Each structure stands twice: as C-alpha cells, then as structure tokens.
Amino acid sequence: MCFTIQKLIILLGFFGLISSVWGQSLEIDFILDHQIFEDIKQQPYLETHLYIDSRTLHYKKDKDGLFRSRIQIQTVLTQGEEIKVNEQSILESKGISDTLPLTLSSAHQLDTWRKYLSPGRYTLSVTLLDLQADSSSKVTAVREFEIKPVYKDSVAISDLLFYINKQQSNQQNTLTRADGKDYIPLVTNSTFILQDTLKAYLEVYRTASNTNKPYFITASILQANSNRQLEQYTQTFRKNPSEFDMLNITFPIRELSSQTYQLKIEMFNYKNEIVTQKTFKFFLFNDRVASEELLTNINAFDQKFGYDENQLNQYIEQLRFISTAPELSFAQVLKTYEEKKNYFYAFWEARKSEPTKYTKITEWQSYKSLIDYANQKYKSKLRAGWKTDRGRIMLQYGAPNDVQQYPSMNNTAPYEIWTYNKLGVQPQVIFVFVDKDLITNEYPLVHSTKYGEANNPRWRLDQLSRFQDANTVDYDNLDRDKNLRREFNDVTPR
C-alpha cells in the first residue's frame, strides 16, 4: 500500500468566490473533490483534493514574527464496518508578515491525498478543525464511492480531473502524472463561474488488450437537460493502442450560457464501433451570455410556480439540504429574479420523475410538504422549524421510519430517537435529539450513526451528567450511579 500526502499553498485568483459559499464566518470553508485512477501497473487508487479558503482560517504570530494558520485534518476511510484508514495530519500555512492581504485576495491551501484500494464500496469522511481559533467547531465532508474490479482485457476510462495548469515537475509528488508534469487541480466540485477555458485530464487503460489498430476518442459538450450536442464543441483524438494512455482536453467556454452541461467521452475502434463511454456533469455560470433555454425556463417557471421574488428567495434557501455541492455554489451567485427563476425550475426539472396513476404530486410539492410539516412540528423560540436540527434531518433524509419520544425522567432531559431502515448503503441509521434547555424546543442533534453527522456514543452519560456535577461523574466506570444508569439504559435503544 502506498500512502502519501503533499501539502501546498497555492494562490488562485478568482476562485475564492466559489469556496466562500461553503460555510459561515465561524467555520472553515472548503471543498472536497475525489477521483479514481489507475497507475501504469493497473492498480486502482483514490485521489482527493481538499481546497481550503484561507480567509476563513485564524492566523497567529509565531516566535519568528510571522503569522501562520494550522488545521487538523482527520481522514477516515471505511469499507462497510471496517475502518481502512484513520489518519490525522496538521496542515500549516507558510508564514506571512501581514494577514490583511488575505481579506483582499483569495489565498487558498490545497491538500492532496492518494490511497491504493482494492475493489469495493467505500465511504470517505474528512473533518477539519482550526487549531488557531479560540473557539472552533469541526466541519466534515463525506463522499461515497466505488472502486471497480480491474479486468486485464477490459478497456476503461478514468475519472476526470479539471485543472488550472500543468508544469514540469521538479520532484515526484501527488500532483505528478505519468507524463512527468504537475497538474494543479481546479477544485470547484465541477462548478465554473465566469470561466473562459475548460481544461480536463483523463486516462485510458488497456486499449492494447482490445485492438492492435489505432482507435479514436471523441470529447463533446452536451446540454444536460436536452442531451443535445453543441456544435463546435467536439474534439476527436487519434491514439495508438497501449496499456496506459493520457488525454488532455481543452474547450473555450466563454460563449456558453449559464446551465448544466455534460462532457461526454466516447471511444471508437477503427470500424467506428463504440468501445466504451463516460459522461461527466458540470455547471457553468456565465452572465455574459443569454440563452434560449434561460428564457424557456423563465416562462415555464411563471406558468408552473409563479412565486414572487421574496417567496423564491426563501424557497431557494430551503433547497440547501438536498442540493449538491455544485448547486450550492451556483445558488450563491444568483443575482437577478430571472436567474433565480431559471435555477429553481431547472433544479426540479432535473429531479422530475414520471407521475404514477396514483399521484400527480411533484417532487417540489412533496418537499414543500416536509417544509410545512417541519415548520409546524419543530418550530423553536429561536428559528423556524425547517432550520432546526430535526427539520434539517427530515428535509435531507426524508421522514424517518420510526420515532421514539422519551419525556423527562430520572433527571434527564426529554429526547427523541429517529430510526431510518436504510440511508444510502447504511442500514439502521439513528439520530438522537435532546431538549437540552427545556425552554426553546430546539432539540439539537447530539448523536447519529450516519456518516458525516455528529457522533457521540457517550451521549447517554452526557444526559445523566447534565443534572449532576460533571466532576463527580466517572465516565470510565459504568458501575457508578448503577441503579440510575440501569433504569435509564433499559428504556434507551442502542
């Protein structure tokens, strides 16, 4: 197994706009991208890119008089219930004499990570903690992915890496490709804002096992909603068969309008028969160009929804729990009423399914009913119901299969346990909410078995200690307060 970490500080011009959508001022703003590649020996590996907005970090002066940030990165990789990787590292910035330029520029830190893996389904969890902050909460990103088996005679195309530029490598590192060049990744979760050029890198494997004659690869940009291929956005490459090959694709996209696109990669043999293909979705925001589709979506919005701008602003905000990372980026740069109409309509068109004979309820109507329910049932004295933890969980994961409610008893606060039979690949997922203050009806989430959510297996002990002197509670000795604990555990599902 090979495990390497490369830490770089990269100054990237405009792209601070993208990363600034990923949190609030008290949280670290970051984006996590990942790809699957193979090396020249046909061994598959995971590659991740962590892109951190330096403007959301805290800097402190060291003994040398320079300011530095320090982030703790916890990387956990699991396959089913087995933990494959549990690594902790510290990412430290270069020393700077003044932090003021950080508020004016878009300095970022890039952490790149590679790990060889066997075939199977995995869950990657990356948690960041600002070590320089006086008070800082952890922020976590979770990705699920699959490493497919490698068959010796099967042609395959890798994932796509969008990049800013490439340069000759002076030293082998995790940015270096087989051509000896370092590719500086463009980590935006496939969302491009006012981008002039699209640069992409991919790899093709085992073509020599399939043919001994030249083959052709076609790269095309299509409109995602209509699947229509765009004229003048197609490139064809003639390649000789090999066990490992690389492909660099560059498209000018300044004239493309704001919408969702697909980059389609197709491989043909010398008989013009398709051998394999792969598509990659990306989002483009470009207010320099108007589009017919924009006008069509605006008209369709007016007919189907007809919300005024204030209503629409609220509804777009309420989509955040079910939005993809690129969609969140896209929503943050919407300016005009027309752009918001287009976004909202396209958002639900992408999730549209065929109505059955039993119902004509749309996906939006179903989601809005959950919002209304959350506002009615989970409203607190601090905020609307959909903004509370119970509201978020319901909107993000749907209604639970089972809810158990426990009133205040034995010196414990009221709490609820929600159970989902299955979420993604995880069976029997629970969420625990506790009414800590007995006043606001907030019921914050204190524990969950869902990947990426708050996890505190000792939450029961925290419940008991809430009404006791914390210094008198022996968390390591479960016999202490035996009778109280036994009675509490008897009614608390694990």
Secondary structure elements and pairings:
Elements: E1 3-11, H1 16-19, E2 30-38, E3 44-53, E4 60-61, E5 67-68, E6 70-79, E7 82-92, H2 100-104, E8 107-116, E9 120-130, E10 139-147, E11 156-157, E12 161-168, E13 181-185, E14 191-193, E15 197-205, E16 215-223, E17 229-239, E18 244-252, E19 259-268, E20 274-285, H3 292-304, H4 309-317, H5 325-332, H6 337-349, H7 363-377, H8 389-397, E21 402-406, E22 415-423, E23 426-434, E24 445-448, H9 459-465, H10 482-490
Parallel strand pairs: 14-20
Antiparallel strand pairs: 1-8, 2-3, 3-8, 4-5, 6-7, 6-9, 9-10, 11-15, 12-13, 12-15, 15-18, 16-17, 16-19, 19-20, 21-22, 22-23, 23-24
Helix pairs in contact: 3-6, 4-6, 7-8
What does it look like?
With 494 residues, the protein is α+β, with helices and mostly antiparallel strands. It folds into 4 domains: 1-150, Immunoglobulin-like (Sandwich), CATH 2.60.40.3880; 151-289, Immunoglobulin-like (Sandwich), CATH 2.60.40; 292-352, no CATH class; 382-490, no CATH class. The protein is 19% helix and 38% strand. It is built from 10 helices and 24 strands. The protein has helices at 16-19, 100-104, 292-304, 309-317, 325-332, 337-349, 363-377, 389-397, 459-465, 482-490, and strands at 3-11, 30-38, 44-53, 60-61, 67-68, 70-79, 82-92, 107-116, 120-130, 139-147, 156-157, 161-168, 181-185, 191-193, 197-205, 215-223, 229-239, 244-252, 259-268, 274-285, 402-406, 415-423, 426-434, 445-448. Strands 11, 12, 13, 15 and 18 form a 5-stranded antiparallel beta sheet that branches. Strand 9 (120-130) and strand 10 (139-147) form a beta hairpin. The radius of gyration is 25 Å and the shape is globular. It starts with a strand and ends with a helix. The model is unreliable at 1-25 and 468-494 (pLDDT under 50).
